[in-house]
Recover the amino acids of this structure.
């Protein structure tokens, strides 16, 4: 059901009148890693980074700023907050790619060599600095067996995931 909801939100409106990001977090116990994929509209990402002084990124063009990945990584590290057993995670940047519809970017992060014993807490503040109505959907998958969903709005507190 959540898939249908997301599909409608992402594709029903041709104008970009809503503010939504989608993040998928996977804990893969077999490789002891957390893998994160975040889907953000390119224009929104460029606008929020411009507010932080990173102007004219020109993502996915021949004029893309050579430091664009670093700026995006720094932004995500400060707005997508995950802690495991009370310890804040520092992600490794894996990369980015344009979405199939050419309107958004998928950003990939990873935390390798990680053991989760008790709990994972998440706070997704992506684009909350830009839009009052920004909503962030987070899906969490533990191995292949369980999946949970969370929604974040501006001002929300961290939410715990069940393992």
């Amino acid at each position: 059901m959540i898939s249908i909801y997301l599909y409608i939100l992402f594709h029903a409106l041709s104008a970009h009148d809503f503010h939504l990001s989608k993040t998928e977090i996977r804990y893969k116990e077999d490789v002891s890693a957390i893998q994160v994929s975040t889907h953000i509209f390119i224009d929104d990402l460029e606008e929020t980074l411009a507010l932080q002084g990173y102007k004219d990124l020109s993502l996915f063009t021949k004029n893309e700023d050579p430091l664009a990945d670093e700026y995006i990584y720094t932004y995500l590290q400060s707005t997508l907050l995950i802690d495991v057993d009370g310890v804040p995670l520092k992600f490794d940047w894996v990369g980015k790619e344009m979405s199939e519809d050419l309107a958004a970017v998928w950003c990939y992060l990873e935390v390798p060599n990680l053991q989760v014993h008790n709990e994972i807490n998440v706070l997704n503040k992506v684009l909350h600095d830009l839009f009052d109505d920004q909503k962030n959907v987070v899906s969490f998958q533990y191995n292949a067996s369980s999946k949970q969903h969370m929604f974040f709005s501006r001002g929300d507190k961290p939410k715990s995931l069940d393992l």
About this structure: The radius of gyration is 16 Å. Residues 2-161 form one domain. The helical segments are 2-11, 42-51, 68-79.
